[in-house]
Design brief:
The chain starts with a helix and ends in a 6-residue tail after the last strand. A hairpin with a 2-residue loop joins strand 1 and strand 2 (83-85). The chain contains three helices and 18 strands. The protein has a 14-stranded mixed sheet with strand order 1-2-3-5-7-8-9-10-11-13-15-16-17-18, with helices on one face. Strands 4-6 form a two-stranded parallel ribbon. A two-stranded parallel ribbon has the order 12-14. By secondary structure, it is mostly beta strands. It has helices at residues 5-8, 10-23, 47-51; strands at 78-80, 83-85, 104-106, 114-115, 128-130, 138-139, 152-154, 173-175, 197-199, 222-224, 243-245, 253-254, 267-269, 277-278, 291-293, 314-316, 344-346, 371-372.
Amino acid sequence: MPKGPHRATMRPLWLLASLLALSQALPFEQKGFWDFTLDDGLLMMNDEEASGADTTSGIPDLDSLTPTFSSMCPFGCHCHLRVVQCSDLGLKSVPKEISPDTTLLDLQNNDITELRKDDFKGLQHLYALVLVNNKISKIHEKAFSPLRKLQKLYISKNNLVEIPPSLPGSLVELRIHDNRIRKVPKGVFSGLRSMNCIEMGGNPLENSGFEPGAFDGLKLNYLRISEAKLTGIPKDLPETLNELHLDHNKIQAIELEDLLRYSKLYRLGLGHNQIRMIENGSLSFLPTLRELHLDNNKLSRVPAGLPDLKLLQVVYLHSNNITKVGVNDFCPVGFGVKRAYYNGISLFNNPVPYWEVQPATFRCVTDRLAIQFGNYKK
């Protein structure tokens, strides 16, 4: 059955609609996040609002999204409503003949190896650039210079060994996970005053790979360095962070001052590490924490200090070595102290004799169904 003209434009329209929905997402909501890589459904907060940036700056104006009737469209690509979709075409380089009024350029799943000086010449209105799953190993220092309005750069799953040079000052979101980056030098993010979301997991980064001052000047609210080679919590990350995800590393302990700098955290992800010890008082530096992920570690007890976190609502402790749960491990003594009750506590796959746990242990939980016990396997 032949394809009609409307079906040919469905995918570009879907890309544009998804991008606009992402830009207007509300903060701290459990909603799916459109990731071009379609890897883990990452959740994040509203980047423009949380950074204090103008939420309309650089975002396509719906009233202006009318067909341009331009004859400029690279061979094999789909072009509609300022969206140029050139994915899955086996391209070896960035195509020519891209309309200068393009807002979204999708080049994912190709064989591009290099970004040259003039590859994006004239694309001064580009808002989002998707280069996921190519073979890019070299980027000219002026490749991104024409992109004065670029806010979202997705360049994950390539062969990069360093952070791209001279990133656009307008950039809000950088996704560069699953590359070969081992070092984050000082000054690499200088001038990026609007940046508030960086996803750089899946790179062979060690703690020593972050030069002192590597994140100077950034006011991030979201940072993910998962699936790397970290053995401890980095101490020089932006103090503005609301979300920090360090899951799937080799972190073995949380020492007293490891979290001193991160008092604005809402969500902290430390699952799938090798954490055996959390020093008493470590969590007291996180007064606004709402969600704590410590699952799949080697903890032998519930971390001290949870009852003092008045806003904490979700704690993941499953798949550890916890053998005992005390009556005051989660809830403060007395009433009216905790401002937000728990709506999720996971303790399954721990060697806890759950029949010995006193009911009063969960007196500050909204519902018994919010507690997950049992299913321990040696």
